[in-house]
Recover the amino acids of this structure.
């Protein structure tokens, strides 16, 4: 839309130098406003194939309601990228099926033969494309299929291949299906591991349909031209994988004080306990367990592990006991390599680098006995001796919790927490420097002081370097909060700006017993975050692993948020926007001045002749209008202050939970007691520590609420309460409760107001606190009961679109609500969308079976019949 408006604007300007300048400015301006041009993001649809169960494989139907109709000829094009798998990889890329039952299939026949083959009916055609087609696995490859229905020929084109086959039987009415499908008699679950994007359909050179497949959620894909919607079952949206961290498994438990490391050669995460170790294989999402022949008693708090890819050794060391062990993969025993003199200092939270070719382990900094250290220790595996280096160059201050990475012979160390003297009580601080240490020269060079979008941050152990563009990736957290999070940041070795990528990872920070690290899988192109938390009372360690596709993306809001962009880019955006708006206003003024009296601008030939730069606004509220002074709970937690600024990021995870705890209990009751707050948020602390933490965070919350008009935090007796004025402060949860509790749902207009609020998503869907479950359940029951009761008063045939919307709202809060599924199926059936209704019911039955382990007691025809029966009774 932005590009079309800009184009029409250019065409309507008078020729001349000013028009050229304006065109250039607007093109630059729109390139910055458009996320796809300012920061190119990958997108498309990933298909679940042989790596998934048959019920979970991906189906794409471009026209679920009908056939496409063509005369004489048409062309189908799409971009394809294959994903290598270690399992069987045969499957259907696409099937084109006509109304007479003829079919043309595009099959991927596995890496051991011609990878892409065209099938005509039940016969092979002469069209076969080998899997060594340049880039078929590494990058997107455009596939173009031109069907000449009149002359019965098919031509396949790739960037460097053109093949033709004749005697193609195909009618003008066709279904176009990708991956698995339920279309009888061509039903299949054979799907290759592939990604598809930018599906386009042409007729005589004119583009009729374009499905970019750039969605990040839902089971439908938009056609940009005809506004049709393709149906997707079991989608894996690529765009989402570059922003959201995923957990390949929930967590795993190991006995003892477990440690984590990564084998970059075989791309395996090693999780080492004192009774067994586990290997998580990134490329096939599999965990292998190795039970020791005897217990590893030297695995103590502070022990770390590493993997020597040169000598294929798993190594464990402990700086307090100066022990070094290696694991014998034949006998399943940890064998002691050496033990030096016991140190009084454990030196935990240090950084390490292992040089495989010369068998040297380097240790940087650390913390122990209330002191921070700047020592650079080295262990030689050949001589089995420790020594301490004496570096030269810039000063490397004592620190812990820094991030480190290696390129060439240079180790880069970012930030950390410590003090210049090394003494914990003498002005400890966060460091913001990037230090480079040359292993050859034993010399430190300070590169710069970084500028981060977050305050008071420290880092997970490792830094991932991408020397193609001199960039690096780190996981940031704060050591001042127990219930914290990890935020991925990207920096550059030549530029001090750090920017945020992806969403947050929940992270419990315990100064003694938690650990986090970051790795890169080059084969699967994923960043891997691993976290551990030891529970001393159980003598167990909980380990979690997260992955995100590489390189990660910005969200759309982050793309144009000057707080998360480098300042140079942000300044450029502001200059371009200012110039664009100024010139548009000048042209509007002169055109209006030259317009004859009696003729208005609205009489012009098209509305698109005057473009308006589309600057995103904060949209909220039940009517979709911009609101300042807003607190939103549906579809996620968001707070807009009285000046219209989004201050959500100012609420740390702890402050957010504290605010919600008091706010929700203030609506439900008289507030919440000091004792209850302490039990929920600071249960692990002694009374004095809990009181101090509570007082500090209450003060922080009060300061934040100053930015919100009509919202005050007060305490009466022993209860904290938030008092707010709903005439000046809008809260979607409070507004919806008033509608529901005051029985204001008497008309469609009132129902629509409620649906506009809740359609954004479930109540605080991104918040996961045990105490919150009661609030979520109460509201879900209230909304479901109210909407179900209202729907019973309406005949489906009188307004099926409205009933469909009601059902969608109920399903937000209960995905398996039987009455809502029934309503939606019957509404879709009334609208003539029979295939969509059937697909919805089929998916519901599968989910029902998964949850209850029994078949759903009604059939699709039972639901449709119940609709007819109810109609007859009403008649």
């Amino acid at each position: 839309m932005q590009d079309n408006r800009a184009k029409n604007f250019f065409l309507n300007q008078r020729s001349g130098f000013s028009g050229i300048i304006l065109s250039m400015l607007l093109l630059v301006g729109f390139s910055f406003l458009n996320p796809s041009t300012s920061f190119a993001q990958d997108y498309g649809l990933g298909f679940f194939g042989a790596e998934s169960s048959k019920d979970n494989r991906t189906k794409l139907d471009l026209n679920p309601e009908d056939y496409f109709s063509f005369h004489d000829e048409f062309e189908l094009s799409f971009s394809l990228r294959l994903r290598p798998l270690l399992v069987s990889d045969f499957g259907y890329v696409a099937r084109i099926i006509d109304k007479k039952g003829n079919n043309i299939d595009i099959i991927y026949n596995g890496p051991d033969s011609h990878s892409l083959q065209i099938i005509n009916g039940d016969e092979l055609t002469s069209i076969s494309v080998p899997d060594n087609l340049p880039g078929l696995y590494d990058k997107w490859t455009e596939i173009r299929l031109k069907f000449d229905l009149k002359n019965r020929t098919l031509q396949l084109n790739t960037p460097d291949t053109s093949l033709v086959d004749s005697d193609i039987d195909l009618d003008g009415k066709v279904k176009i299906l990708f991956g698995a499908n339920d279309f009888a008699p061509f039903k299949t679950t054979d799907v290759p591991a592939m990604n598809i994007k930018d599906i386009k359909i042409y007729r005589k050179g004119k583009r009729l349909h374009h499905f970019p497949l750039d969605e990040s959620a839902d089971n439908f894909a938009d056609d940009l031209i005809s506004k049709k919607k393709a149906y997707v079952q079991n989608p894996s949206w690529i765009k989402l994988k570059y922003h959201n961290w995923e957990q390949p498994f929930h967590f795993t438990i190991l006995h003892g004080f477990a440690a984590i490391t990564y084998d970059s050669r075989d791309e395996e995460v090693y999780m080492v306990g004192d009774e067994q170790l586990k290997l998580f294989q990134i490329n096939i999402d599999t965990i292998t367990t190795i039970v020791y022949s005897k217990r590893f008693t030297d695995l103590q708090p502070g022990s770390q592990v590493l993997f020597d890819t040169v000598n294929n050794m798993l190594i464990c060391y402990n700086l307090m006991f100066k022990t070094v062990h290696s694991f014998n993969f034949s006998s399943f025993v940890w064998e002691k390599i050496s033990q030096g003199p016991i140190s009084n200092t454990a030196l935990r939270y240090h950084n390490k680098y292992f040089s495989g070719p010369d068998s040297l382990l380097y240790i940087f900094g650390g913390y122990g006995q209330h002191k921070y250290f700047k020592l650079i220790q080295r262990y030689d595996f050949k001589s089995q001796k420790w020594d301490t280096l004496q570096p030269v160059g810039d000063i490397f201050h004592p620190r812990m919790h820094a991030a480190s990475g290696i390129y060439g012979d240079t180790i880069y160390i970012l930030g950390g927490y410590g003090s210049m003297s090394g003494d914990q009580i003498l002005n400890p601080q966060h460091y913001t420097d990037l230090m480079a240490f040359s292993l050859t020269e034993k010399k430190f060079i300070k590169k710069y002081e970084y500028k981060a979008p977050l305050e008071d941050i420290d880092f997970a152990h490792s830094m991932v370097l991408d020397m193609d563009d001199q960039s690096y990736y780190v996981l940031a957290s704060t050591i001042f909060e127990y219930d914290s999070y990890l935020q991925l940041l990207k920096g550059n070795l030549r530029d001090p700006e750090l920017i945020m990528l992806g969403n947050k990872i929940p992270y419990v920070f315990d100064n003694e017993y938690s650990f986090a690290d970051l790795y890169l899988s080059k084969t699967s192109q994923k960043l891997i975050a691993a976290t551990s938390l030891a529970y001393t009372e159980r003598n167990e360690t909980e380990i979690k692993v997260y992955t995100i596709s590489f390189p990660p993306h910005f969200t759309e809001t982050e793309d144009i948020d000057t707080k998360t962009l480098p300042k140079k880019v942000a300044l450029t955006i502001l200059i371009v926007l200012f110039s664009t708006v100024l010139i548009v206003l000048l042209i509007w003024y002169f055109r209006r001045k030259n317009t004859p009296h009696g003729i208005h601008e609205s009489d012009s030939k098209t509305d698109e002749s005057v473009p308006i730069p589309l600057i995103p606004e904060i949209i909220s509220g039940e009517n979709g209008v911009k609101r300042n002074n807003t607190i939103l709970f549906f579809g996620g937690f968001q707070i807009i202050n009285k000046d219209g600024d989004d201050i959500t990021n100012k609420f740390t995870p702890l402050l957010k939970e504290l605010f919600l705890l008091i706010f929700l209990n203030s609506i439900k009751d008289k507030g919440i007691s000091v004792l209850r707050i302490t039990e929920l948020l600071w249960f692990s602390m002694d009374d004095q520590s809990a009181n101090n933490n509570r007082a500090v965070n209450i003060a922080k919350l009060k300061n934040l609420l100053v930015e919100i008009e009509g919202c005050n935090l007060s305490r009466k007796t022993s209860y904290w309460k938030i008092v707010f004025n709903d005439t000046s402060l809008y809260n979607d949860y409070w507004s919806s409760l008033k509608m529901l509790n005051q029985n204001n749902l008497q008309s469609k207009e009132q129902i629509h107001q409620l649906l506009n609020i809740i359609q954004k998503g479930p109540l605080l869907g991104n918040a996961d606190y045990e105490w919150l479950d009661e609030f979520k359940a109460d509201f879900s029951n209230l909304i479901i009961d109210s909407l179900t009761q209202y729907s019973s008063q309406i005949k489906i045939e009188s307004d099926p679109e409205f009933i469909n919307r009601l059902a969608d709202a109920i399903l937000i809060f209960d995905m398996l609500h039987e009455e809502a599924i029934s309503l939606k199926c019957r509404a879709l059936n009334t609208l003539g969308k029979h295939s969509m209704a059937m697909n919805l019911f089929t998916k519901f039955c599968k989910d029902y079976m998964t949850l209850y382990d029994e078949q759903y007691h009604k059939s699709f025809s039972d639901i449709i019949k119940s609709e007819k029966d109810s109609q007859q009774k009403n008649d």
Remarks:
- Confidence is low (pLDDT under 50) at residues 1-39, 555-570, 592-626, 867-875.
- Residues 252-553 form a domain with the Neuraminidase fold (CATH 2.120.10.80).
- The longest strand covers residues 495-508.
- The CA atoms of residues 349 and 445 lie 22 Å apart.
